[in-house]
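[step 3/7] fold_predict: job queued, chain A
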Amino acid sequence: MAYFPMFVDLTDANCLVVGGGRIAFQKVKVLLDFGARVHVIAKEVSLDLAALSEETDHLLLEQREFTPLDLQERKLVVAATKDEELNAQISMMCSEGGIPVNVVDDKEKCSFIFPSYVKEQNLVGAFSSSGNSPALTQYLRNKEREVLTPRLGELNEMLGRWRQPIMELFPLEESRKSAFEQLIDYALCYDGIPTDEKVEELLGAISMTL
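[step 4/7] structure written:
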């Protein structure tokens, strides 16, 4: 089974995690990291989850049994209980309702999986082994940390601010690509991200050569 790599906007998305243990806590942290609103339903909730709920208004905890009605209007669902039969039931109901579902440690019942990732602001690098080897994706993630640094996260934010002005200044794709590449080269060759004033200066010089 191979999973198609796709990035999805989860900002304020209504997500459900069923289960309150260590693995559920890990999945909740990932969802919160990407801006989702997470509803956790579990008979028992870990101290880590309880503490996390005090830090954000994007996390709602309920200590009770899961019911099928809990699946209504969910963007995605994670089944992270120790009850394999319940996890299977949740997977089946999500499949029937067209809801993306992840069942921890059971890739055959998943319609999506969580990749290992590195995130610096809005710049994200992710790895997936299609569920075959989490250890390998963790290894790759650790290697990626050496490359995807906070500085690149800052550079990505700067380029995002300038994307529209650059598209207007350089209407031809090849010229636009060259402008972005030269800005990136400048930022990586010198200490620090260029200020907006410096970017204006650089773009003026670049436009004279293209």
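[step 5/7] annotate
The two ends are 47 Å apart (CA to CA).
The first strand starts at residue 14 and ends at 18.
exit 0
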